Prior knowledge:
By secondary structure, the chain is of the alpha+beta class. Helices cover 47% and strands 22% of the residues. It has helices at residues 2-15, 42-115, 119-126, 128-135, 138-147, 159-192, 320-323, 331-339; strands at 22-27, 36-41, 204-207, 210-213, 221-224, 227-230, 236-238, 243-252, 256-262, 267-277, 284-285, 290-294, 304-311, 316-317.
Amino acid sequence: xxxxxxxxxxxxxxxxxxxxxxxxxxxxxxxxxxxxxxxxxxxxxxxxxxxxxxxxxxxxxxxxxxxxxxxxxxxxxxxxxxxxxxxxxxxxxxxxxxxxxxxxxxxxxxxxxxxxxxxxxxxxxxxxxxxxxxxxxxxxxxxxxxxxxxxxxxxxxxxxxxxxxxxxxxxxxxxxxxxxxxxxxxxxxxxxxxxxxxxxxxxxxxxxxxxxxxxxxxxxxxxxxxxxxxxxxxxxxxxxxxxxxxxxxxxxxxxxxxxxxxxxxxxxxxxxxxxxxxxxxxxxxxxxxxxxxxxxxxxxxxxxxxxxxxxxxxxxxxxxxxxxxxxxxxxxxxxxxxxx
Length: 340
């Protein structure tokens, strides 16, 4: 019977289908506890192994995705940081550009007021109006919107977009700086040329440059080297340009009390027959500064200021073209401009 059983078992093992062989796993604890055993066939082992490998594969793939996302997040953070910094720089430069535009416009308005022109005409003269027209395009509107935008309040474009705006701002800034420099140069030159009347008060023109009858003797012809403007005694007399007081005459037989100012580029101006000079030799003078009071000192017949313009020390020229350079309203200047 024992031999038959062994033969039967041998036959069962030999004819058993592949994969149905069993593997027994036994757990033998210490002591008298019960022994645990687990029987698995090879198909079950293969299935469990596949599940384990799939779990490991999914874990590895999950780690890969996690690291990839972390790298992408870091890349976006870096890009955001670059855009954030670029946006701050754009905002700072745009503010500077606006300040520069305001400075240029202010200078143009000052020149326009001085020359009796319109600010729009001055802008056209220096080409600023065309620049302003181009600046009103979409790109500049975008820049203007950015300056009021809190950094990081909305999606920021890629860095190359910031570079485009930055390049535009730098070009526009150079244009405005060049324009401002030309305006400052023009103002500087303008302020050193004796233009306009020596005062902002009501004068009446009493005698022009050139040959005339001597007002004292009324018998002979004489050459009048200046332009006479009459007014009330003590009327303030102002400098017509920046400069330095070259000399002050006191009780000169002909000019009486007089102030001679030396300007840049070889110009001089003289203000004679003053009641009282208010400056001294060597004193710096700015355009429009009060230098004396109208009087009737020297060889005169009435209260007035005798105004002369020199090119070089003592080379007198007709002051009227310089007076009418800014005075376009008086009858004398309107007549002169119509003739010339």
